[in-house]
## 1
Amino acid sequence: METLNKHTTQQPSKNDLLILGSGPAGLTAGIYAGRAGLNTKIIAGRERGGQLTGSSKVENFPGFPDGINGLELMDRTIKQAELSGADIIYQDATSVDLTSTPKWIQTENGDKYEAEQILIATGSTPKRLGIKGEQKFWGRGVSTCATCDGPLYKDKDVVVVGGGNNAFHEALHLARMGAKVKLVHRREEFKADETLQEELFSHPNIEILTNSELSSIQGEETVKSVSILAKDQEDEKQIKTDGVFIAIGTVPNTDLFSNQLELDEAGHILTDQNLKTSTDKVYAAGDARDSRYKQAITAAAEGAMAVMNLK
């Protein structure tokens, strides 16, 4: 556990509730807490809105029959949280003490915030492949966000790695923009929703490579090709590509709490049915604890539930 910065002289901000995270779980919790009259601060981090801001079109969130851009949805939710009375701090948390009374969080600029109760909604981070060339070309042809980087690949060749909903969304988004997509998946079967599979399988710009894995990424200043190894072959196959989009799952952002809360083997925070953690008056919601659903709607619901369960 990190200790408080010795150079901090400012008196701590005292609150009823501190919320860590600004995705659907944290912001919905902020809405409910603000409406309940709780003095609430959301430590949002510098990248507000969570992973949903990288979705070009969210089609399964209630109230938007035609879909909505993920960034727009989160901007609306941020505004609603603010109007409800929550105070949002756009800084990263660097230190926490979940066992003291009151509990506290310190941010990167040395500000300290105290509260009797804390809700952790820090979400998760996309996994990496861990192959040669991935780090070298990160941000120079290797990405985890088609919404962010897709416009750079119009009419170009790209590779998308993964077999779940996120990978299918990435591939379809790139294909709709005119990219020629090769979807590489290490298994024969896919975990993506049936509706997504039907759309992807019928798209003329998408080629599917199953039972295959990327073994390395090559290039000069930017990505030029990838090496792919199929399970039924001994030799690698090199494919020319202008970009690689990795969509193979996520890792919960819980390292800051590893010595203060009980976690599962993957790092998700363990809670009871009321979203209480192993530490008194500390709750968790969303992808930081959810190892199964990982949906915006379930994260938002958990944010509301956690606040309603506060003692």
## 2
Amino acid sequence: MKLVVFNDFKVGVVRASSVVDVTDVVEDIPHINTGELMSGLIERFDQYKGKIEQKVASSQGVPLNSVVLRSPLPKPPKLVCMAVNYMEDGTRAEPAPINAFLKSPTSVIGDGDIVELSQDNATVFENEAELGLVIGKRASKVKAADWRQYVFGYVNFIDVSSRGLGAQGMDSFFPTKSQYTSAPIGPYLVTADEIPDPQNLQVRLWVNGDLKQNYNTNDMGHKIPRVVEWTSSITTLLPGDVIAAGTNHWGLGPLHDGDFMEMETEGLGRIRLKVRDVLQRQWVRETHRERQAKGQPAQAPRIS
């Protein structure tokens, strides 16, 4: 099932090229806002699945291209992002030590929204396309073998990074990762039954139609079972939490004002975003792979 939030934050299900409004089916779930409603639906999905399926089967819906899609997770309780979790197409001899950081839920935006580049003096802004795991129930100290019991579904996730912010010599994850609009999620939340093998999905990201990132989730250094086990050993995961599983860095490159960014993971649809930089800064248009092939530092330098 492909769950969406659309228009004035109604809850819907995508069926072929249409979307069916199921808000009336789920609105009795206790909530203050749509973010809480989606988390509540995820937690109670088994109770509501049959009712939702009946509504979808008996409704015509409206054309998908006639609605405004929001993030399917407007305000997840937590965003846990894995750090340096890919083998970079076999160029790493072994996985990096397992690590992660928290990204602010208020940084979430959805399909068709604008990524606003911070006016802070970042050294560069980069795209990081990632598979997002959506937690389905309270999870603490989960065994790796049991990970599927706790993953409700999957989303496209882009970690927009504002490099170089924070005090020199200190951990800079907070200022570099939690900027406003730096966590695009969408367009759909796809339930786990539609993705039988999340460890073998192609992830692609385009900037202005040029393919920049193109990698498979089988290149993860720490696989999904270990990721769920490790994160839940540190913090209690809640329904609606997202674990972003990391990215292959070879295709990372600078984002500029006016860019059009698209990301698609197999089976999860394609999210489309615009980029705006009121300062109109410019960087050398090269990816990490292109720069390292020249023996240059991975991150592109600013030119204006």
## 3
Amino acid sequence: MAINSKDKSLWVVDSTLREKSMMPGREYSEMEKLKIARLLSLAGVNEIEAGIPAKGPRECRAIRQMKIENPNTLITCWVKASMASIELAKRCSVNSIHICFPEETIDGSRSAGEFEKDLDGMKEMIKKSFDHFDYVSVGVSNPFNGDLVRLNRFISKATHFGALRVRLADSQNRISAENLQKFFETVKTRTNASLEFHGHNNGGVGIENTLRSIHGGADAVSLTVNGLGDNGGVACLEETGPALLSKFQYTNLNFYKLKEVARVVTTLENRRKPRKRATAAA
């Protein structure tokens, strides 16, 4: 699974179900979620970000069932950075949790004391997570225009506390592809941590930014089927997959199954569009 001259391996995360949980409107049913998860597993993604435990018991039940049905794929629940959210995630009975910190965490305008308090909180959250999960990752939203010194310290502390991967999420498309590659190159000179990029697609930049992040040193990328998600969507899984093959010789993905899951998601999304009511002729 080598992807470049450094013989690194790439980890592909699908965030379709988690992104859908955060979008307005009717959510997928439990059976629909399970069908999508099965197809994603067959398509060869390494990890499925299955949902948000805080959404309630039905969400947790679906996440539990995904783990049972897809033993060869890492099933992850997503939580906001709080002890209460981590406590809720225990109900999902999965092996993996992702803890998302807000962009304010590394804001240079905040006091040093506030930042250090956040790092202490992260230590306790990661410690608590490892009491119930085997795999713990953390992330921070929109760090690209934040304080780079604080970001480096955030990454260093996260890995020191045991986090196995750090996600840098560009949900606002605040950085160009060229600068994104340089950003990852810069951060990578200061850490051996496993870094993930999660890029949204305003202006159609999602795929290019994703590829540039890998060139810059990202070890993992998160994508969605059909580019599903808010704010222009997320970089599209079935379109990024062929680019990963051609540029990085990444061969894990089954393109036939990717097309199949894309058709399923398209059908589900079309069913949720309101139908126009027929108007009787006068």
## 4
Amino acid sequence: MNEPIDNAEPTNGLAEILAPRLSVIFCGLNPALSAQRDGHNFSNRSNRFWRVLHLAGFTPRLLRAEEELEMLEYGLGLTSAVSRPTKSASELKKSDYIAAAPVLEDKIRKLAPANLAFLGKAAYAAISLRTDIDWGKQPEAFAGTSIWVLPNPSGLNRAFDLVTLTEHYRELKLAIERDKSVVT
């Protein structure tokens, strides 16, 4: 099991779920006000994060937000691009992501995960100064780590149904499994 890092500075009342050398760290855009209130990441019942993780094969059972630390047992982590909670990520500006980028880059460089998966295009587009972001694996690295851009699982994101969300996340899961089989 991966040992969590001592996160003495939780993100506005929310713990980041982090440890060195994880298979993937999922990077949300920013915490929701409901998550801050509940004290757990992706706690809003309309958010599909936990369901998609399970359906895509990252977890053997459906985790609840209160069980978020169990992600570490499966080589998974969780952070946010911007630490400021909002009702909707649409309240963030490009400048918020750009200002937060050095902190995220330092964190990823120190933890050295195999993959960093941005949940939504906004943060990575702002940080990379690119507008032509496609879903899936990105051609460049960030802080020495492979980058993936996955659809945001927020219940407010109705452009992706549960099946399509799961397909995108499963693509990352399969890539991680292929990478592990090449190493062993």
